[in-house]
Every structure is written in C-alpha cells, then in structure tokens.
Amino acid sequence: MAHTLYIVGIGPGNPDYVVPKGLNLIKHATVLVGSERSLEDFQEPGQITYPVTGKLSLLAEQIEHELNSHDVVVMVSGDTGYYSLLPYLKKKFPANPIEVVPGISSMTFAFARLNEVWHDADLMSFHGRQPAPEKLVYEAGKKMGFLTDPEYNPAHIARILIDAGWPKETRAAALERLSYDDEKIVDSTLEVLTELEGFGHSVMVVLG
Question: How is domain 106-207 classified at the CATH fold level?
C-alpha cells in the first residue's frame, strides 16, 4: 500500500496555533520535513528530518525515497492553501496519496491582531512578485493585505501606494513575528510606515 504524504499547515509558527490533528501528525511522524526553524520548534527525538531549502528538486527526491517505506509529514508555514508548497508537491507526486491539514495563515492572523475582518479585503503578495498596478488603485473603504519581503517591505509598499494616490493618513499596519514572544506590530498610517525600518518578511494591512 502506498504511503501517505501529509501537508500540515503550522500557522504563524507558535505551536499554540496549530490544529490538534496537525500537531498529532507532526509529533508521531517518522519522517518530518519543514523549515529549519519549524524543525527546531516541532521535531521529536528519533525522527528523520529534512529541511526545506532553495533546492526543491533535491527535497522532492528525498521525499520520494522516504515514501517507499514511510508516511511523510511536510510542515508548511501559515495555511496550506495560501502561498505554500502544496501546488509543487501535488505536481511532483500526482499519483501518491496526499492528505492536507490546513492551518492559520499569517494574513488571517494579522487581521485578527488588528481586530478586523478580512472577508472584504484584497489579499496580495509582494514576496517575490508584484501585484498588478490596477489592483493597487485607491478606493475609499478599500482593504488590502500584503505579504512582504526585504526588497518590498512595508516602507517601500507604503511609498508605492502614496504614489498611486492613497492618502498619507490612511491607516496601515506592519506585523512581524506574529504569535511569538518578540512579535512586533506598528499600527499607524501610510506616511509613518514610509519611514519604518525592517519588517522584511512580514504582513502589511491597509485599511482605506
């Protein structure tokens, strides 16, 4: 019988925010795959572990080898359906049984931290990509959420939005290291965020 590839969302990273089924799969996994940070946080003694690096083709070979003998649990940050490894793994293992256990995305967690709903927000990413300019056009009452990276950090994005016609006094927030003890949240305006340093890998929320 073919072994199962489990894709488990670990939310923002703190084990307190991982669903119980996901935690159980992680705890009892024979083979556990994840970022170096997640392996440090979640791995149990005796588990076979593989870190997720930039060499995804090598990782796929390692997973394929292990699936010959064991189930494999792959931890992905945030939710499995939001900019995760799920599409890549489905493409690499089309005939293999896959079970997906969702988590909490950093985006939904960010809106929760701001006591805001996100069902009416436009969610986009500046992490390794750029949204189409027409998606950034100002509209009164418009909500947006962005994933950021070191190049397109909240300060850079705030300047882009102001140049696109967004009022400087628009409420905007940058959120980093969500769920951890050193969590950082700057809830202010686009104008203030243009001077914000850091927050490379973070979430930015704009509330027009």
Answer: 3.30.950
